[in-house]
């Protein structure tokens, strides 16, 4: 009888293990199908926490306020390419800031919910032409991506950035900015609306 008390603890430990979120999600949904209120609440909570759960092998996980972004090797490579193309010649902090903007956009409801979709979104990054970005990132760019994944965001959770001295986008120049911060040659900001 005393061993029966351990079964719920083992079940919960298994259920909420960070290594098996998909199995936990399906187990919870199945376990609570008899009570739709509990099932809906648990499903909604898990859906809010599982962003970009790819079919591919996950190599990194970004955790911000209990929202998880599961990153594949392809995601990391795309991020490093954007960091290289958008912040070549900028200080390391500026490179981390560019990577942070990508992660912030994935978390924001106003943007797509995967790294690939954020990067390939039309007109999102000037270095992406026709859905392609053909640069070879440096080790420093990858280090900046990993620093952003660790949660180091020097931008105050910015969603946009540009170089005011060379920008050709009138929207960036004219939009009302909130929480702006200059890092290197770039200005990082959120919009006020």
UniProtKB/TrEMBL annotation:
Gene3D superfamilies: 6.20.240.60, Cell wall hydrolase SleB, domain 1. It comes from bioreactor metagenome. Pfam families: Hydrolase_2. This is Cell wall hydrolase SleB domain-containing protein. Residues 89-189 form the Cell wall hydrolase SleB domain. InterPro entries: Cell_wall_hydrolase_SleB, SleB_dom1. GO terms for molecular function: hydrolase activity.
